Every structure is written in structure tokens, then in C-alpha cells.
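Sample entry (295 residues):
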Amino acid sequence: MSHKPAPAPGNNRVDTIDSLDGLHADLARRHRSTQSSGATVPDAVVDADLAALQRDGHVILDNLLTEAECEEIRAAVVPLLNNTGRNTFEGHLTQRVYSVLNKTRACDRMVDHPRVLALLDRLLLPNYLLSQLQVINILPGEDAQLLHHDDGMYPLPRPRPPLSAATVWSIDAFTQENGATVVLPDSHRWDDSRQPADDDARVQAVMPPGSCVFFVGTLWHGGGANASDRARLAVTAQYCEPWLRPQEAFNLSTTRDTVRVVSEDIRRMLGYSIHPPFVGMVEGMHPKRLLDTPS
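Predicted structure, serialized as C-alpha cells:
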């Protein structure tokens, strides 16, 4: 008597597809999956963060990094700062670092912080992706950034649930004078006809070093003007649904050697994962198999 081999643990093997419902399975076959580190955050904490996020469109998470961690990040990224922005949106007096993962490991702890992932686990579908990672240094004299919402690039009408979410981390303290991020509470509920008006409430994300403001991709916001005499250093990590194209092409900008050394959470968010049935596959198989072969 012949027997079919048992599927490997976590493979969720499906041999017969006779309805569209069958396409919800992972046809590229999973590697053994790991739980998001967001699962380590107590439910009561996540519930409170999520309630504030759903009410206002943003929530400030204070003191997630220590002073020593902020100084380590500063030491790693300041030498990378060079040119200022190419236009007023990037900021003619704002320095930005792209392709951060290939240049330093110092920012990883912000990308995969459990408190952030715990919220993303509630907001987005499993295997959500990292959409962008930047270091942003706003120099003295910079003007306020144009107000915008991050997932406005996706041509789906509002109002709607967010397709993405973002964090802006304060390496320097964010103050009213030095360009703290400006958010418009409740603007995540607006439809396409609604634009920011002068009488709309604006809140600056004033927070100590090592904190982050987390907001959904439908929230109107922008970098603040820096009227101080010192630069304001920050890191932003943005995330999107697993079926969307990220802003940064991490599959091109991040080497396979880098992918091998980042955390499992970051690896999954870089696209070494599958959105069922086979979005993200390589040669019909799970992309994580690429890590089993030389670069």
C-alpha cells in the first residue's frame, strides 16, 4: 500500500483546488513560521493603544528606547547624513538616509519593536510588509512639510480602512520649536473631498527621546517647522498590507546577506513571506528558500 508523505510541519499543504476558497491556502508552502514578537505585549496594553489609535488616528508611545540606545542609534546614523532634500516635500534643509537596513543594524530595534508589531498585528493582515525605513534629520530653519496622508498613493477612495501605518521615532526630543511631527486628529475618517483647513485642530507629537508616534496611513500629518537652533533627528518606519507594493523596493536595496542577519520579524516584513495563495513566491516556492542558497 502506498502512502502520500505527510506534509512538513507548518507547510499547510493543499493538493486539490476545486473552489476559489481553496486559493486562501498557501500554495507556495510555508516554512515553519514564527509568531510576531508583538504577541509578547500584554493584551491590556495593546487594547489601550488600539483604542487611542482608532479614536484619534495616532497614539504616542513614550520611552520605548533608553537614552543609551538613542545615543547608539545617533552614533551609527549621523555619519551617514549627507545631502539635503531635492524638493520642498523632502525638505531643502532636511537630511535623509535611505536603504538603512543595508547600512547599519542600529535601527532594527525600532522596525521590529514588540509594542509596534502588536498594533500592526491588529491593524493589518498577517505577513504585512515594511514599506519604508528612513533616517530624517530636520535642520534649523526648515519649513513645515506639506500635510499629507501616507497611503494616498494607493488609488482607492476614502473613507476606508488604512492600508498602511507609520512610526516616527524621536532620537532627539520632539518639541514645538524643533519640528515635532504635526498630526490632525480624526482626519483618518475624512473622505476624498476633505482637505486640511486652517481651523482644523493640529497636534504636535511632543515627546521625549526614545518615543514614537504611531499613526495610520489615512491620517493627515506632516513634519513640523524647525524654529530652534539645533537639528532634530528621527527615524521613520512605515508598513503596508501584504498585497500592496511597498514604497521602498527592499528586494533590490537589501542584500541577501543582510536578510540573513536581521530578525525573523524583519525578514518576514522584507517580503520573505507569502500572502496566500502565492503572492511573493519565487519559482513557485516560498521566498525564504532563497536564503538556503549562496547569494
